[in-house]
Every structure is written in C-alpha cells, then in structure tokens.
Amino acid sequence: MLYKFLVLLSCSLCVVSEMDGRREDLVCGRRLINTDPMIHKGRKVLAGQWPWYAAIFHLDRDTHEYKCGGTILDEYTILTAAHCISPVLGMNSSNWILVHVGQTQLDVAGTNTQKLQVKNVIIHPRFGEADLDNDIALIKLATRIKMNNYVQPVCLWTMASEQCKIVGRNGTILGFGMTEENVLADHLKKATIQVVETIRCIESAREFGKFMTSRMYCGGGPPGIGASDGDSGGGMFLADNSRWFVRGIISFHPMSNNSTGSNQSNFTAYTDVAKYIDWIRPHATHMDKEGMEEPKPDKKEKY
After folding, report:
1. pLDDT band at 138 (very low <50, low <70, confident <90, very high)
2. How far apart (Å, rounded) are the C-alpha atoms in residues 47 and 25?
3. Is CATH 3.20.20.370 what the domain over 51-141 is classified as, yes or no?
4. For tag attachment on the chain, is the N or C end more exposed, with fewer CB atoms within 10 Å?
C-alpha cells in the first residue's frame, strides 16, 4: 500500500433545554473544568481538558486493544474515520468494538472512564477503502454517555465549509498514537497543527497527490510534531466564539520509511467534516430532539 492508515492492523447536537430535565450544563464545545497546562512529541492532556475525546478498542484474542480515536457528538454518537471501523464490518459490532470516554491513560481506566458498548456502526456509503475517500463513520452506542465535568460533546462545524477560510488557522489533535520508541503513548497527548494549502501535502509526498480529494484538507505541525500511527479517527478541533468545533478527522499520512510509525512528511490528510454535515445530521440521535439546537457562532467572529 502506498499510504498507511493511522490505525493499528478522529453542533447541532448539543444544547440541552430545560424541558428535557437533563443537566443545563450539557453545552457542546466548552470545558467545564479550567485546565492550564508527547500525539508525536505532543503534550499530555489533563482530565477534563478535552472531554470530547473517545478511544476506540477492537476485540483481539479475547481482549480489547486500542485502535483509533473518536469524538463525542452527542450522548449516543461517536464520530471517527471509516477505516477504523471497516476491519470489523460483517461482525457483531457490539462484541468487536468498545468505546472508552473520559480516559486519559491508555491502560488505566480511572474514576472518570466510561466503557460503552456499541449498538451499530454507520460507514459513509461511498467510503473507498482503496483510496480513503469519504473516510468518515459514526458509532452508535448501546448505552447513553453520562455527561459530566470530564465527558462532554464537541460542537459540529456549522460555519462556512470553504477550506480557504481555515487555511493558516491552528487546530488541536489528540491521541494515544505511536511515540518515537514505536510504542503507543501511555497518556493521551495533544498537538497543535496548522491547516495549510493542499499543495503543501502534495509537494511533500506523492501519496498525497494520489489519494487526497476535495473532501480532505492538509494539516502540518513543526518538525517532529504531528499525527502518528494510532491517532487516526480522532478529530481536529478549532476554536470559535469561545467554543470548540470538530472540523477534521485524522485520516492518513504517507508510509514511514522506518518502523517507528512516525509521519515521514510531517503532513497529514484530514477528512473535512464540514463536507458531511448533511450526512451526519440524520444519524445523530439528538440532533433535532429533546431541545437540542444548533450552536450559532457570533456573526462578527472571523473564521
């Protein structure tokens, strides 16, 4: 394969009214805990700092092993990359996939961790496993996520979808991906990534030129900073009007020339979530129910 999955073998959903009797603080894209503080040479994430991160596990030899990241959209819906789910298609997803939320240490399920069974998975119907086009999927949970200070939904991108409007902006990615020692990170890490022109990806490695489509965008960090194997499926989060929105899903980077799982070009292709809002909405359990409404950014805010 000329590209390498980052998997090991990345809001109209969120504002709850008083009418449904649930917590009034269930608001998308906002931390409920003030946190002030190496993904590849990234910084460790503190509990409650990025409460919408989800870790996806696959059953392997009677045990669940970490495979990918994901993002909490609502109490029953996790956003991730299609290639994170496709290996278990045709199997009983409730047995083969497990989702953890509220967890910042890979091998330690702390008091904030919720382990959630899966009801079913929804892969974009035009996902191309050979070329990674439409690399987006939703995991529907069998049990409801209990929102609290450490587990919250992110906002779905509802602003302009043109990629030119986010070029030059910095976003944050999260993950338990491979370190320089070729092992999964034991602690959830974050990295700041800049959205750049697609041509930057294409010029850095020919694999980008072959596989990138208009439904993807390019992101890169400083030397040694970026997504690595195991980070895929996680989101790229951009801040707007004091809230965090998921704009991208970590999809792929060129195959490394070494065994560390690092990104040889320092750039990564992201599925552009803004191109899939109309596909996501019908599948989101609480998109138009129970008082949830679309968060509207400040019209004066530039993005």
Report:
1. very high
2. 18
3. no
4. N
| Nearest-angstrom CA–CA distance, 205 and 254 | 7
Q: How far apart are CA 80 and CA 284, in angstroms?
A: 13
Comma-separated ranges of CATH 2.40.10.10 domains in the chain: 51-141, 155-274
CB distance 245 to 155 below 8 Å:
yes
Task: State the average pLDDT over residues 80-105.
Answer: 83
pLDDT tens for 154-206 read 999 989 999 999 999 999 999 887 666 677 777 898 899 999 999 999 998 88
**CA atoms of 176 and 30, how far apart (whole Å):** 22
Can you read off the two tokens belonging to residue 42? 């990234």
> What is the pairing mode between strands 77-80 and 170-175?
unpaired
The answer to whether the pTM exceeds 0.85 is: no
Model pLDDT, residue 26 = 60
Termini Cα distance of the chain: 36
Residue with tokens 């700092």: 49
Q: Cα-Cα-Cα-Cα dihedral of 261, 235, 205, 180, to 10°?
A: -20
In words, the CATH class of domain 155-274 is: mainly beta
Residue 153 in contact with residue 28, Cβ under 8 Å? yes
Q: With contact defined as beta carbons under 8 Å apart, do 198 and 259 qualify?
A: no
**What is the C-alpha to C-alpha distance for residues 236 and 171, in angstroms, rounded to an integer?**
6
Residue 142 and residue 30: Cα distance in Å, rounded? 25
Residue 212 has pLDDT above 80, yes or no: yes
